[in-house]
Amino acid sequence: MARTRFAPDRGLTNRMLMTMFLIGLLYVVFVGVLIVVLKGAWPIVVIVAGGLFIAQFWFSDKIAAFSMGAREVTPQEYPELHGAVDRLCALADMAKPRVAVAQSDVPNAFATGRNEKNAVVCVTTGLLRRLEPAELEGVLAHELSHIAHRDVMVMTIAGFLGVLAGVITRIGVQFGMFGGFDRRDNRDDNSGMIMLVVIAVSAVAYAISFLLTRMLSRYRELSADRSAALLTGRPSALASALTKVTGQMAAIPTQDLRRAQPFNAFYFAPALKPSEAMSNAFSTHPTLEKRLEQLGKISAELGRS
Fold first, then answer.
1. C-alpha distances in angstroms, 207 versus 79, 163, 166, 196?
2. Which of 16, 23, 18 is nearest to 207 (CA)?
3. pLDDT recorded at residue 288
4. Which of 20, 85, 151, 227 could hold 6 in an S-S bridge, CB 3.0 to 4.6 Å?
């Protein structure tokens, strides 16, 4: 992780390395199988895979900010927000990221960017309206921790394979159905098999990458909570923000929550949660109870010290 005053987390580092290794291995196998199956179309596979990876890696901050409706703001526009970020960055001894605001009543925040120089921390107008200054600083410290630990970059890369699997599936279906890969007489007989193989390979790649990113996402949220609480020395403020944000989600129209749901993995708190039966495997965040329990333990430890 970056050399800051945020508490280091070896567990997070080890999980990020393992996730990147497994995702990288899966990526190589995925593209290799597609090259073999699609035969003459291998240049298209390589170009599309390479192009999408470069685009997502280099422009992840801009893509995420645009998708979530974030707009970079100046200290003159939001002096209190910038002041809070300035104080926390000075406390953490880290470079100040760009600051953005999203016009949304969904109370949330996120951080994105492949490194500190390209990082953006964003809060919604709904969050600014609802939180007290100490609570807001707790949320901002949580998001700055993601930047310091560099898990934002890992999540961006890890999530790439799922995007690629969907794109390759559509390309494979289109070319497979219309004989774009092979001009021989038996192309119609082969097209159906090619289509099924491409879809199966893509589905497996997506499922594995999905589960890996979800496991990493849940742990990184706990790590960010812990690091933010230790940096600010006020775990109770972060716990209050968590409770308030989670409770206020129920008052947000379902349509707005569904629009925000695709970005759950990057948010401070999930917009919509999966059903209770599926929550352990598919949730991007640990339960509120688990997060509050951890913050309670940190508060007790700080009290004893």
1. 44, 12, 11, 16
2. 23
3. 92
4. 227
Residue 179's φ and ψ, nearest 5 degrees, are: 70, 30
Question: Which domains occur in the chain, in start order?
Answer: 10-17+67-156+199-304 (3.30.2010.10)
- Euclidean distance between CA atoms 176 and 190, whole angstroms: 8
Catalytic pick among 135, 137, 143, 221: 143
User: What are 94-143's pLDDT values in tens digits?
Assistant: 999 999 999 988 899 999 887 788 889 999 999 999 999 999 999 999 99
**What is the Cα 263 distance to its own chain's centre?**
7
Residue 127: other Cβ atoms inside 10 A: 27
At 269, is the secondary structure helix, strand, or coil?
Answer: coil
What is the Cα–Cα distance from 203 to 171, expressed in whole angstroms?
14
Mean pLDDT of the chain: 82
DSSP 109: E
Query: Residue 109's beta-bridge partner residues?
Result: 123
Q: 3-class DSSP state for residue 233?
A: coil
Cα–Cα distance measured from residue 2 to residue 4, given in angstroms and rounded to the nearest whole number: 6
- Encoded tokens for 45: 């596979």
CB-based contact 52:31 (threshold 8 Å): no
Q: Please state the pTM of the whole predicted model.
A: 0.83
143 is catalytic: yes
Both structure tokens of 1: 């992780």
